[in-house]
Amino acid sequence: MDEFFPQQSVSKTWVVLTVLDMVDQGKLRLDQKVRITRDDLAVFHQPIRDQVIANGSIEVSILNLLEQAIRASDNTANDSLLRTVGGPQAVTTFIARKNLGAIRFGPGERALQSGIAGLDWKQEYSIGQRFYAARDAVPLVTRKAALDRYLNDPIDGASPQAIVRALAKLAKGELLSASSTRLMLDIMSRTSSGPNRLKAGVPAGWSFLHKTGTGQVLPPVSTGYNDIGIMTAPDGTRYAVAVMMGSTTASIPQRMTFMQFVSRSVASYHQN
Question: Pfam family of this protein, just one (predicted)?
Answer without folding.
Answer: Beta-lactamase2
